[in-house]
Amino acid sequence: MFEMVIALRHIKSRRRQTFFSVIAVALAVAMIIIFMSMLSGFMKNIIDVTVENQPHITVSPKVKEDYIFLYHGLEKFILTQGGVIAVSPYYQGQAALQYRHKAEGVALFGVIPEYEDRVVQKERHMIAGDFESLSTPGNHIILGSKLASNLGVNIGDIVTARFPGGKPTDFTISGIIQTGTAADETTAYANLKKVQDFYDTGDIITGIGIRVSDIYAADKLANEIKRGTDYEAVSWMELNSQILSLIKTQGEFVVILYILIFAISGFGIANILIMIVMEKVGEIGMLMAMGTSRKSILFIFLLEASILGIAGVMIGIVLGYLSDLLLLSFTIPLPPEMYYGLDHMPILIVPWNFITAGVFAMIVNTIAGIYPARRAAKMDPVEAIHSV
């Protein structure tokens, strides 16, 4: 194909400019891949922290009610719904935990440890003790890591739980949990029956946590539960709508950044093609005089843009991958309180990011080559030859 031969000859005629144009594209692609890997890691962390540290769906009492009565029947109904993996009834109340001269306000959750672990996988976050210890005889309690630190307690210490109008009760610390969220400073877990006795409420609960097989179907299932039972049912997406909105907004800003970066590299390719057109005016005129169609002339310069783009994309993908591996080998610390408990810069290597960056670059590079290609194709062959 003679168009390819001519395109390659043109590119080789300006080796230095070709080199810098290819490097510009490669650096743009590599930079975008790094940004996308960081964003993918950040989003995965947000979803993991959001989804894995709370039920996918939370069922609350009916409107104008404070508790869920006869909840065993409700559990059975929920378990019959398609996509439901596990349910966990709980009682949540406010209390103060005291150890010696220190006291902290907490959200005290009464749970059935086996059920709770199925719904939110608490066991994997235990840094001391065992979540199942809540099932053993006696008053046992598990504290969030920051809460335990604030109280100055450890496994085996005894804390006193109090609430207004209630009888103080001693609990032995049997575990410490760390989720990497703000809950670590304000949350404590005990056996459901023990907490019901502590608040003297009888066999009632304040909510049911649900785990589903498809987290993105949680909204639909929550609505079905609400329609079928009249209980309030909220999905993790609704509960965390602000975070998800932040991720969406962040993604939109990042796309704008991608476009700007690729536009800069595209200008480099457009510049070198325009220079080639200006230098090869006579050659273009001769080709057209010899019968080469304007379509072929257009194709020649689009080929040049594609060749430069492909070379830049291939080098950029390699650079991006190596850069990701390099960043993975280092731990870049971040303030946990600012990034939803994330204490280091996350990098997630996803093949789709490389494909997206490569395709995006090729589209921009092809667009960049359209103007010089059309300019060459529109030349008058007689004027082109006489201008040499």
Descriptive notes:
This protein has a 6-stranded mixed β-barrel, surrounded by 4 helices. The chain contains 13 helices and 10 strands. Helix 1 packs across helix 11, helix 2 runs antiparallel to helix 9 and helix 11 (294-328) runs antiparallel to helix 12. The model has no long low-confidence stretch (mean pLDDT 83). It has 388 residues and is α+β, with helices and mostly antiparallel strands.
User: Share of helix among residues?
Assistant: 55-70%
Strand content: 15-25%
- The quaternary state of the protein chains shown equals single chain
Q: The biggest beta sheet, please?
A: 6 strands, mixed, barrel
The order of strands across the largest sheet is: 2-3-8-5-7-6
Name some characteristics of this structure.
single chain, alpha+beta, 388 residues
